[in-house]
Design brief:
It contains ten helices and 13 strands. It is α/β, with parallel strands linked by helices. It has a nine-stranded mixed beta sheet with strand order 5-4-1-8-9-10-11-12-13, with helices on both faces. A four-stranded mixed beta sheet has the order 3-2-6-7. Helix 5 runs parallel beside helix 6 and helix 7 packs across helix 8. The longest helix has 15 residues.
């Protein structure tokens, strides 16, 4: 059999994404970019001053995952918390323009909308500074109850559930975790978790975990697990601790994505050569691609090829970037 005859037909795979109903649950974020030029030093202090040229807003966290899913034609439902502020307005507006229901975006009196504000140079496309609005306190019952009710109302129709944990409070509630786990089991929903926090073992019930190599190694070191020499050791030891069907580990400084099976065996790994101009949101792209791929029945090899195609396309863009179906067919 020739290489040509076994080559995956990615155009056919991408078309199947539109058959999926997906629900994304997690930490919602807004990324604001303030672009300026004419940088000079202030006479008041040794700090830069820029003349503001324009401002951009993009979606971050779980909202960025929903953004990519919608652009890839999957039916997306989004659930998370925002504050009563301008950032929440921008988030709802962008989500609505994507055709995603905003009914799962719940305002809270107890936290602001998580917002990362970056000061950018127009001339050099470089970041000059950043400040964040956020609160990472655990959800309280007034916040958890409507979210659980929303997810319950759609669970029976879902093919895929993606959990996006950025450590901003959504996944610090035991009650919320228990409710999601029950729905996962009751409706047999493929559940993929993207974890960027130390609360890794809270996700030991999901089907598929996506994590950076840095975060995985940090977790294993904290557990005092030794003899970690390479990515194969990281994957094998992490799967040994968690009963996963699959584990995806990404390392964009090394431009590498790897997938491990339920036995901790490395079943697919790929490097890519493209220049990474901005790593913002690349973990979200990898999560989206492997989740969609497995949801439509792809092999690990096909899943990792799609993840590489997706990250290659968005790595060339400033900010979280935009992914389109044609980027995955090239």
């Amino acid at each position: 059999m020739t290489k040509h005859t076994v080559r995956p037909k990615y155009s056919e795979i991408v078309k199947r994404f539109s058959d999926l109903n997906t629900i994304i649950i997690g930490d919602l974020m807004v990324d604001k970019y303030i672009w300026g030029k004419g940088i000079r030093l202030s006479t008041e202090a040794a700090v830069p001053v820029i003349k503001v040229d324009h401002e951009d807003y993009s979606l971050g966290g779980a909202a960025n995952i929903a953004f990519h899913l919608a652009n890839l034609k999957a039916k997306a439902y989004l659930c998370g918390l925002v504050g009563y502020d301008d950032a929440a307005h921008h988030l709802r507006t962008q989500i609505s323009h994507l055709g995603i229901d905003v009914g799962g975006i719940f305002p809270s009196n107890f936290r602001p909308t998580t917002q990362k504000i970056r000061i950018m140079s127009v001339e050099h496309s470089q970041i000059l500074g950043r400040y964040d609005y956020e609160k990472d306190d655990p959800q309280i019952i007034e916040e958890t109850a409507p979210m659980i009710k929303y997810v319950q109302s759609y669970a029976s129709d879902m093919n895929l559930m993606i959990l996006s944990d950025y450590g901003r409070g959504v996944f610090k509630s035991v009650r919320f975790f228990d409710a999601l786990k029950k729905l996962h089991q009751e409706y047999n929903i493929l559940t993929v978790a993207q974890c960027r926090t130390e609360s890794l073992m809270n996700f030991n019930w999901v089907d598929h975990l996506v994590i950076s190599s840095w975060r995985a190694r940090e977790y294993l070191n904290r557990r005092k697990i030794k003899k970690i020499k390479n990515i194969e050791d990281i994957g094998a030891k992490l799967v040994h601790l968690m009963p996963l069907k699959y584990l995806t580990i990404y390392d964009f400084s090394e431009r590498c994505i790897s997938i491990f099976d339920t036995n901790g065996k490395l079943c697919a790994t790929r490097h890519f050569q493209s220049q990474v101009q901005d790593q913002t949101g690349l973990g979200d792209v990898a999560t989206v691609m492997v989740a969609l791929a497995f949801a439509v029945g792809c092999t690990p090899f096909e899943a990792i090829e799609l993840a590489i195609k997706g990250t290659r396309a968005t790595a060339q863009q400033i900010g979280t970037g935009k992914l389109a179906p044609e980027d995955l067919i090239k």
